[in-house]
Amino acid sequence: MIIMPNRPEEPSRAKGPTTGHPCHSAEPEGQPPTGELGTGESRADQGADDHVDATVITPHEAGADGAEWDPTAPIPAPLCLHTAIVLPAWTDYNGHLSEYCFLLAFGDSTDAFFRHLGVEEHYRAEGHSLYTAETHLHHRREAYSGDPLLFTVQVLGLDDKRLHLFHTMHHSRSGEVLATAEQLLLHVDTRVRRVAPFPVSLLTRLEAVREAHAHLPVPDAVGHVMEIPPRNAAG
What we know:
235 residues, 4 helices, 6 strands, globular
């Protein structure tokens, strides 16, 4: 993973009308820490001065606090497990959140979901993990340095080896949808580097989330095909 150098910070810009988001989580406050990794710190920021071959650590690793799985608790629909603040290092020459950092931020949201389900260091040490097979990003609005972000995740489907997720990135204050990410993930036995069935315990949790999310509408962006429709010859 290549870590881009820090760029000058851009001021936050005014957003459009408030639309609201489905979570009641508190938005991240202030700038994330720059020392020891915390839940608000990006892995991009954490590795900005490290060698590019350093191990990537996400905000939800290294013992970071998170919402642990409680089989007796109601499951929110959608789940809200990750917040972040746009860092100066995430912005590009257009003065807004760079395209690669949208994917980075959605990856952190995925990791928060994994950790919530119990997919963490011990799980991976036993030779299991999830790999991303496909990701579709839709960029809806710009985001700028200092903007607070809130992420939701919806389980669209699964089988014994695959997981279909949909993430939405919201501006925490205005509620505007900034971007979405549709993902297909595969469960992998990392000892042989091959796709393998979910353990029963993890599959049970995933099925519970899918059932809790079954009433949610399928987002319009799901399955979208990128194309430029041909012009009408008569037009």
